[in-house]
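Field notebook, page 267. I keep forgetting to write these up properly, so this time I am using the form the group agreed on. The chain and the ligand, S-adenosylmethionine, are recorded exactly as supplied. Prediction of the bound pose follows.
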Amino acid sequence: MSSHRPRKRFGQNFLRDQHVLDRIIAAADLQEDDRILEIGPGPGALTSRLLASGLPVLAVEIDRDLGAALQARDVKNLDVIIGDVLRLDWAELLQNPPYKLIANLPYNISSQVLFKVLDHRHAFRRLVLMFQKEVGDRLVAEEGTRNYGILPALIQPWFQIVRVAKVPPGAFHPPPKVDSVVLCLEPLSEPRLTLHDEALYRKLVRGAFAQRRKTLRNSLLGSGWGAEEIDRAFSAAGIEPSRRGETLKIEEFATLANLLSTYDREE
Ligand code: SAM
């Protein structure tokens, strides 16, 4: 759609660098029984490459004009849904798992997409995604570093993350103001953590990072955790309550979460 003017509110920076597209397709490692989910196909540069594999492609596009143009292509292996991917029911969307999620994501929704993926992680075989470089740096950050936080602590237990390509602004039209990175996230056959209660782990991680400048104890208290139960868990885990959330390894969060879930069961 050459007449389409990119819409900023939808994060429309269209890929025009064929080399980057090659790298995304290579990282997708498409196999004959794969199904592909693409979020934000836009004018379809990546979509065309995906369709060339002959595999079924399910594409969700919020922009009605672009979505309608793709629908009009009337390609047999393409199914286009026009809508906001964050508002769709993903259980309904992902009816024939497993999928490979391959996308040049709009930057403003990438974290929310990852949280959706987490809720449906068993439906995915692989993710190859474009991120703003800062978000990519956060995803692979280790504890104790500036970039560590909720996103890595929630994603790293389940996915192996590999950097596929660094992408400069000039690879897009219009060029964004930031650098980008393509990452490949592969579900681990053996997750890094064993959790009794995943929801509780997430709640704990979110609480620990709610107020980054506070101690872990104060941050958790401020997020509604009870003093008695968290002090009991700190002591049983041998974790100093005066530490900051960002110093905890995911394994330490898991130990705390598993202790807290046993206390819940005692009640
Ligand atoms: N895949 C195309 C490419 O690589 O050139 C377009 C990528 S562009 C960075 C992001 C695309 O996501 C745009 O087409 C935009 O309209 C679409 N988009 C933005 N927010 C969305 C949402 N919430 N749900 C579905 N699509 C969305």
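OBSERVATIONS:
- The chain is about 35% helix and 20% strand.
- The pocket of S-adenosylmethionine is lined by residues 10-15, 39-42, 45-46, 60-63, 66, 84-86, 104, 106, 109 (CB under 6 Å).
FOLLOW-UP: compare against the apo run.
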